[in-house]
Specification:
It is a single chain. With 179 residues, this protein is mostly beta strands. Strand 2 and strand 3 form a beta hairpin. The radius of gyration is 17 Å and the shape is globular.
Length: 179
Amino acid sequence: AATVVLQTTADGSVANGTGVPVVYDGANSFGLIHWHTIYYGYAIFEFDLTGIDDTSTIDSVVFSYVNYYDGTSNTGFVDYFVEAYLGDGVVNVADFSTAGVNVGIGQVPVGTAGSAQDIVLNLAPVFENALLGNLLTLRIGTTTIGHQIQFASRESTYYGDADATLTLGVTAAPPPPPP
């Protein structure tokens, strides 16, 4: 299997703090948070899969990001879930409620500012289905009140190349037999 590393093409967050989902984008950081039973914020990451053949098999998926928090004000572990769905290449309010497939659940350490963190995702047909349209979206959230992850954004001026990445193990489809 070949390894393909993709940088996020768009990132940001969507939240319903005012009752209506809004987009937060373009800052040095953005986050996911669950303040109470009615306030949710999700981190959104868009990936372009154009360079991968549509008939390939996805063997493994790892999402990597850079922590923005320094861990002093929010320490310990954060519960998370990751949902994947066919993307559109932009972070918008539709990302708040688009149906997704759960591809990961667990805990990550808050981490120190600038440190990298990996999340190994579960294989699901959504990854190979996304090859046909060339776009994939990951939505990351938490169901635990008070939990938060702060991600360094693509626009971050603090951590240089802070783009989140998606590392795929990819096996090309065998060529068809000769006639």
